[in-house]
Write a structure and sequence with these properties.
Elements lengths: L1 E2 L2 E3 L3 E15 L3 H11 L12 E8 L10 E8 L2 H16 L6 E4 L6 E3 L1 H5 L8 E5 L2 E8 L2 E6 L2 E16 L2 H15 L5 E2 L12 E2 L9 E2 L6 H5 L12 E9 L2 H15 L5 E5 L10 E4 L5
Helix pairs in contact: 1-2, 4-6
């Protein structure tokens, strides 16, 4: 099938299950809320090497937040409950509690279980901590030099989906880059998802395992590398393509990831020079979720 003359290959994106949390970070200003949200989601591109996958989901205006201040929803993901608990404690404690004027709320719907992150963080108050209620939520009040830091007592998590993806194959690197940026912008309007890589784009790509070194769990996806194709090495890239970018998506469930893939692909296909849309899969070695590209439309 085609969209705007761009071929959508008959293949699937192979995604995997992951535990997902969704937090709302508010602050006195939109800028301060974004600073805290950005800090808390750093070093969170891929669980191949990072302690979590994390990113900013969406902006929430003051009229829609529990404390009437601007905020950003962030998502933090990990395959282990224990590790996710640790990441929440460290990222909220080190990156949000330390940021000016912030508060943190749980905004995950239909949680499978809860983590007592706020309860644990309250002990930073050294016996001077207190409790309050905001919009029916139990909040711990921790005195800090600039005022008080407020954090909800518990944060829910559920089984989500990570690694939804698609490849943008373009006639040049710059056209591929423009298409990738347009795709990420479109995905930003879909709730419940993040694109955790830098700028939402995966420049590197990867594959499960390694051909040459047995100590690596993941390595470059050589059949999708432009420079190797141009050296005459076996490639899966069409002859007239000279730019390849991958978009990776994590979400609260498969429906959210599929909606984000659809939005991103449709946006990418509006950019001149985009030749086809492909996806990454590894024969079931990565995960159980298979999202067929053509079934999205």
């Amino acid at each position: 099938m085609e969209i705007n003359g761009v071929e959508i290959k008959d293949t699937y994106a192979e995604a995997f299950g992951i535990k997902v949390t969704r937090l709302l970070v508010t602050a006195a200003t939109k800028k301060l809320a974004l600073v805290a949200a950005t800090e808390a989601t750093g070093y969170g591109t891929s669980v191949i090497g990072c302690p979590a996958e994390a990113g900013v989901d969406c902006y929430v205006p003051p009229s829609e937040t529990p404390d009437g201040r601007p905020g950003y929803v962030i998502m933090i993901c990990n395959g282990s409950k224990k590790k996710l608990d640790h990441e929440l404690l460290e990222r909220i404690g080190m990156c949000i509690l330390t940021a000016p004027t912030t508060a943190v709320f749980n905004v995950l719907d239909d949680a499978d279980e809860e983590l007592k992150t706020g309860f644990k963080l309250k002990f930073f108050g050294d016996g001077y901590e207190d409790e309050t209620e905001i919009d029916g939520r139990k909040m711990h009040v921790i005195p800090i030099m600039s005022g008080d830091f407020l954090v909800e007592s518990t944060f829910g998590y559920k089984e989500g989906v990570a690694g939804g993806n698609f490849f943008i194959i373009a006639d040049s690197k710059m056209n591929g880059l423009v298409a990738a940026e347009v795709a990420v912008d479109a995905i930003a309007s879909v709730p419940g998802v993040i694109t955790p890589f830098p700028g939402g784009m995966v420049a590197s790509g990867s594959k499960v395992g390694c051909n040459s070194y047995d100590f690596l769990d993941a390595s470059t996806n050589e059949k999708m590398c432009i420079s190797l194709k141009e050296q005459g090495i076996e490639s899966d890239i069409r002859e007239d393509a000279h730019g390849v970018f991958e978009i990776v998506i994590d979400g609260v469930d498969a429906d959210a990831v599929s909606a984000a893939m659809k939005a991103g692909i449709e946006a990418a296909c509006t950019v001149p020079g985009v030749l086809e849309i492909d996806a990454g899969n590894f024969g079931g070695n990565l995960g159980a979720h298979k999202i067929n590209l053509q079934d999205l439309f």
